[in-house]
Amino acid sequence: MAWNCFRETGKNCFRQLVRYGNVWSIQPSWIPVRGLRGSTKGNRRDTNTGPKYTQGKKVVVSQILVRQTGTRFLPGYGIGVGRDFTLYALHPGRLIFEKIRDKNGRKRTVVHVITEEDYMTMQQKRLQKIVDNAKTLGGILESIEKQQVSLEK
């Protein structure tokens, strides 16, 4: 009787049974008090992917550098690859991102971990190049001198 009442009038009848009647005669697992809900489509890993550190940062051994699906970032010197394509450091040093073109002509990024000494020499070479360009105004003075020499001849 209680089940027929619930089937006819829905949740309101069930609430009345809770207040006034014997609820224990009805099994609560049969009563759809909440509606049907969808389920997740699978365990996707798209929320926390991407590089975790910028170029020049100090890293330690086994520190996760890039989380990715597939090989968007390629492993370079001092980099290990996990089963889910996660890149991690194999030794301590500084993080370097290098832009290359692969054999198909696509632009790719290679991640390296280099030692502190190599990083400092790389920075010194970069600064020296900037100073040399500043002295010649980025090669403008050299081109003007060449034009003057060609006009004098």
CATH superfamily of the largest domain: RNA polymerase II/Efflux pump adaptor protein, barrel-sandwich hybrid domain
The total count of helices amounts to 4
* Element string (H = helix, E = strand): HHEEEEEEEEHH
Number of domains: 3
Average pLDDT confidence is 79
How helix-rich are the residues, as a percent range?
25-40%
The class by helix and strand makeup works out as alpha+beta
Total DSSP E strands: 8
Shape: elongated
Q: Please mark out the parts with pLDDT under 50 across 5 or more consecutive residues, or reply none.
A: none
Shape-level CATH architecture of the largest domain: Beta Barrel
> What topology, given as strand order, has the largest sheet?
1-3-6-5
How large is the share of residues in beta strands? 15-25%
Distance between the termini: 115 Å
Radius of gyration: 34 Å
Mind describing the biggest β-sheet? 4 strands, antiparallel
Q: What is the CATH domain class of the largest domain? A: Mainly Beta
| Assembly state (oligomeric) | single chain
CATH topology of the largest domain: the name is: OB fold (Dihydrolipoamide Acetyltransferase, E2P)
Explained architecture:
Belongs to the bacterial ribosomal protein bL27 family. Keywords: Ribonucleoprotein, Ribosomal protein. Pfam families: Ribosomal_L27. This is Ribosomal protein L27. One of its GO terms (molecular function) is structural constituent of ribosome. The chain is α+β, with helices and mostly antiparallel strands and 153 residues long. It folds into 3 domains: 1-33, no CATH class; 50-114, Beta Barrel (OB fold (Dihydrolipoamide Acetyltransferase, E2P)); 120-152, no CATH class. It has helices at residues 2-9, 11-20, 116-135, 140-152, and strands at residues 50-51, 58-59, 64-67, 73-75, 79-81, 87-89, 93-101, 107-114. The strands form 2 sheets. A 4-stranded antiparallel β-sheet has the order 1-3-6-5, with no helix packed on it. Strands 2-7-8-4 form a 4-stranded mixed β-sheet. A hairpin with a 5-residue loop joins strand 7 and strand 8. Helix 1 packs antiparallel against helix 2. The model has no long low-confidence stretch (mean pLDDT 79).
